[in-house]
Amino acid sequence: MECEYDLALEAKYASEIASLLATPSHEAVQKYYGKLARAGICPCLMVKQTKDMGKGIFADKDFQEDELVLRDRMLVGAQHFSNKVDSFVCSFCCCYIGSIELQIGRRLFLHGESMRDRAKECKIEKSTHCSQLELVVESTNLDENGDGVADLDTTEDPCSDRHSKTRTRLPEEVVESLLNGTLKLPYSERFPLPTVINCIGGCSEEYYCSTSCAEAAWETFHSLLCTGEGSLCKNKDELRNFKQHADETNDIFHVAAQVISMIILKIKRAKQNLHEDFNWSKVLDFWEPFAMGYKRQWWDCVALPDDIDPIEETLFRKEIKDLAWTSLQFLKGAIFEEEYTPLLSLKIYGNIIGMFELNNLDLIVASPVEDYFIYIDDLPHSEKDEAEKITRSFLEALGDDYATCCQGSAFFPLQSCINHSCEPNCKAFKREQDRDGQAILIAIRPIMKGEQIFISYIEEDMPWKERQALLSDYGFACKCCRCLQEQSNSS
Ligand SMILES: C[S@@+](CC[C@H](N)C(=O)[O-])C[C@H]1O[C@@H](n2cnc3c(N)ncnc32)[C@H](O)[C@@H]1O
C-alpha cells in the first residue's frame, strides 16, 4: 500500500526535501568545484556545463599519454560484504592492513568457517530429505559435528562456495599460527602492511590502517553507525538489524547510511561549536557535495535485470522500493531524530542510492597477497625452490582466487562528473603505487587543454547498437562523437 511509504511525512516536509533535490545553480557548481580546485584536489581540471551531457570535466592543461589526470578521494564508500572474507582492509581508506601472514591466515580461517557453516546447513537440509543435497553431503565427508574433515584434499564440493573447488585445506594449527604471528612466511617482510588499529568506539566490525583513519571515520560517519560501546547510535539492535539487512540484500545501503550520518554529525558538531539553533540551511551547506551528484530515484533508474520479464517490470520496481523502505526503517530505528526527518525520508534515501547507481563508483584495490606470490615465483631458482617448500601449501590452500582484490562501492566527487565516451581519452587504472581506495584516472592519449575528459562506462569495442543497449542500463542514449557519427552513417 502506498501509504506505507510515509507519503504524509513527505508532504509535510515537501519544501525541505525539494531543497535537497534541487539541481544546483551554475554559480553553486562553480563555487563547489572551485573550492576543490583550490584545495589542490583537481588543480588541472575544470567543471563546466556541456550542451547535451549535463556537467562534465575539462582539461585545464595539456596532458601527455599515460599521465595522471585525476586522483579522487572517496567521500563515502565501503568494501563489499562478500569481499570482507578475502581482503582485510582499512575501513576508511581501504588499504590492506596487518601482514601478509594475517591476510592469508584470515582468509583461510574465514573460508574454513564458511565451509563448516555450509556443511552444517547441508546436514540440516539433509535431515529434511532434500535428495540433491543428500548426494552432496555424502561427498563432503562430514564428521559428527557437521564439520568437513580437516585435512581433506582437493574437493569438488557443490555444497561449498565456488572458490573452494580447487583448494586444499591446511591443519587448523597452521592457520592459527599465521593469525597469531608465530609463523613467518619467507620474504614477507618485503611487503610490509600498516598495523591494525581498532575502532574508537570498540566495535569488532571496522579496523583501520592508522589512528588518523580511525579518527576520520569516527568523526565523518562511523560514530553514529558503530555497534561498539562508545557508539552515539540510539538503538544498537536496530543498527545491527540495518547492517544485517544490508549485508544480506544490497551493501550499497551501508554507503547511503554513511551519507546521512555524515550530515547529521556535521550538524551536531556545528550546533555544539557555534551554540546555534538548528537551521535547515546548515543541512543544505553540508549536503553540498551530494547536491552536485547526478541522481534519480533508485527504483526508477535501476536497470531491469536480464532474467526479469519486461511485463514484470512494475512489480520489480515495487520490490526494489520495498527493499529501500525496509532498510530505511531499520536505519531510522537506529539514528532517527525529529529535526533530521527530511534527510531520512524515502525520497532522499532513494535518491542517494540512485546517485550511486548512476555514477561510476567501483572501488578496487590490488592485493599484496598477489604481489607476494608473484615475487616468490620470480625469485632465482634456488631461492624460489627453498621458499616454495613453505609457500606452496598456502597457495594451494588459497586456491585459484588467491589474488582476489579489495572490491567495494564508493562515491567520488569528481570522478562522478566524468561523462562517458565510446572513444575515451582516459581510463580508471591503478598503478603500482596506488594502494588505497582512491580513484585514479590516466590519460590514454594526449589530451589538449580545453578538451572534455571522458572515460568509457562500458566495453567500447562493440557495434553501435550493442553499446547503446548497454548504456541504456545507465539511463541515457550516448551522444559521444563516435555514436553520433555511427548513428548518422546508419540512417
Ligand atoms: C556519472 S554522470 C556524469 C556527470 C553528469 N553529466 C552530471 O551532470 O552530473 C552520468 C550521466 O551523465 C550523462 N552522460 C554521461 N555521458 C553521456 C553521453 N556520452 N551521452 C549523453 N549523456 C551522457 C547521463 O545523463 C548520465 O546518466
DSSP helical segment count: 17
User: Helix proportion of residues, in percent?
Assistant: 40-55%
Q: Number of DSSP strands?
A: 12
Please tell me what the overall shape is.
globular
Rg from alpha-carbon coordinates: 25 Å
Instruction: Give average pLDDT, whole number.
Output: 87
Question: Unreliable runs, pLDDT <50, ≥5 residues?
Answer: 124-164
Per DSSP, what share of the residues sits in E-state strands of 2 or more residues? 5-15%
Distance between the termini: 46 Å
Number of domains: 3
**Strand order within the widest sheet?**
3-11-10
Q: Write down the secondary-structure element order.
A: HHHEEEEHHHEEHHHHHHHEHHEEEEEHH
Largest sheet: 3 strands, antiparallel
Small molecules bound in the structure, each named once: S-adenosylmethionine
Alpha-beta content class: mainly alpha
Task: Summarize it.
With 491 residues, the chain is mainly alpha-helical.
Molecular structure report:
The structure is a single chain. It contains 17 helices and 12 strands. The protein has a 3-stranded antiparallel sheet, with no helix packed on it. Mean pLDDT is 87; it is low at 124-164. The protein folds into 3 domains: 2-31 and 74-88 and 215-362, no CATH class; 41-67 and 415-431 and 439-491, SET domain (Beta-clip-like); 100-180 and 368-403, no CATH class. It is mainly alpha-helical and 491 residues long. Strand 5 (197-198) and strand 6 (207-208) form a beta hairpin. Helix 4 (100-127) crosses helix 5 (131-140) and helix 4 (100-127) crosses helix 6 (172-179). The chain starts with 6 loop residues before the first helix and ends with a helix. 37% of the residues are buried. Bound molecules: S-adenosylmethionine. This is SET domain-containing protein. Residues 43-458 form the SET domain. Residues 146-166 are annotated as: Disordered. It holds the Pfam family SET. It comes from Picea sitchensis (Sitka spruce).
